[in-house]
Amino acid sequence: MQQTETSLTMAVVPQSFLDKLEAGMKKLEAILQAKSEKEINSQWIESVKIPKQLGISQKTWQTYRDKRIIPFSQIGSKIFVRRADLEKFMKDHYIESKQ
């Protein structure tokens, strides 16, 4: 019968090393967050969901498309909008408070 030994190895490291490691982890976290936001903004949303998201009627949404107010892509009868374009539209129509 063979026995396996497990050992606990400990190391002492300078605080400066731990600080650099923590800073590197924070940078990595920021990069991953930015990448995640970029992926979300590049997602395509089906046209049928847009009026509800914007709180508008189907007729108003049709007018927006006819006037090219929000960019879209059409494949056959299917229409898609990038999430980033909806966000831009919302930001462009943002009204500041009077405080």
Spatial strand sequence of the major β-sheet: 1-3-2
Q: What would you call the shape?
A: elongated
What oligomeric state do these chains adopt? single chain
Rg of Cα set: 25 Å
Question: Ranges with pLDDT <50 over ≥5 residues?
Answer: none
As for the CATH topology, it is Arc Repressor Mutant, subunit A
Following the backbone from N to C, one meets helices and strands in this order, namely: HEHHEEH
Distance between the termini: 79 Å
Query: Number of helical runs?
Result: 4
- Pairing-aware structural class of the strands and helices? mainly alpha
Number of DSSP strands? 3
Walkthrough of the structure:
It is a single chain. The protein is mainly alpha-helical. The protein has one domain: Orthogonal Bundle (Arc Repressor Mutant, subunit A), CATH 1.10.10. Helix content is 52%, strand content 11%. The chain has four helices and three strands. The protein has a three-stranded antiparallel sheet with strand order 1-3-2. The model has no long low-confidence stretch (mean pLDDT 88).
